[in-house]
Write a structure and sequence with these properties.
131 residues, single chain, 3 helices, 73% helix
């Protein structure tokens, strides 16, 4: 097997391996996919670093294309996750504003109730013996 065939076979192995290496025990499918994509990027870049002084060839171009494709997918996923989190935060902020207005209204109502039921500091005419 010549060098180009060996390197292409290695790229194919990297693409087909869908198992994250190391101590990854996650049940989250999105996290699993992310780990696999990061491994692929590492594997492809390792293939590119393994040049040993040879000139850039078609296999290097394929490896670079694969790195860029995986990188683009990871960035797109991260952007989507960031948009999702931002929407969640906007929703939570709106709910907090609504809840705060509700609590402030309830406090104002309770203060009015307490003020109306509290004994007055001014004596009433019927209680004042001088009148």
């Amino acid at each position: 097997m010549d060098d180009a065939s060996r390197r292409l076979a290695q790229l194919a192995r990297i693409l087909s391996d869908a198992r994250p290496h190391g101590d990854v025990s996650t049940t989250d499918l999105a996290e699993h996919l992310h780990q696999v994509q990061l491994q692929r990027i590492q594997g492809f870049t390792a293939q590119l670093d393994d040049g040993d002084g040879r000139s850039i060839d078609a296999v290097d171009a394929v490896a670079m294309r694969l790195v860029l494709d995986e990188y683009s997918r990871v960035v797109a996923q991260l952007r989507a996750a960031a948009r999702e989190r931002a929407a969640t935060l906007r929703s939570l902020a709106a709910q907090l504003r609504t809840d705060r207005q509700l609590v402030e209204g309830q406090l104002a109502h309770r203060e009015k109730q307490l003020a109306s039921t509290a004994p007055s500091d001014q004596p009433l005419a019927s209680r004042n013996p001088d009148t």
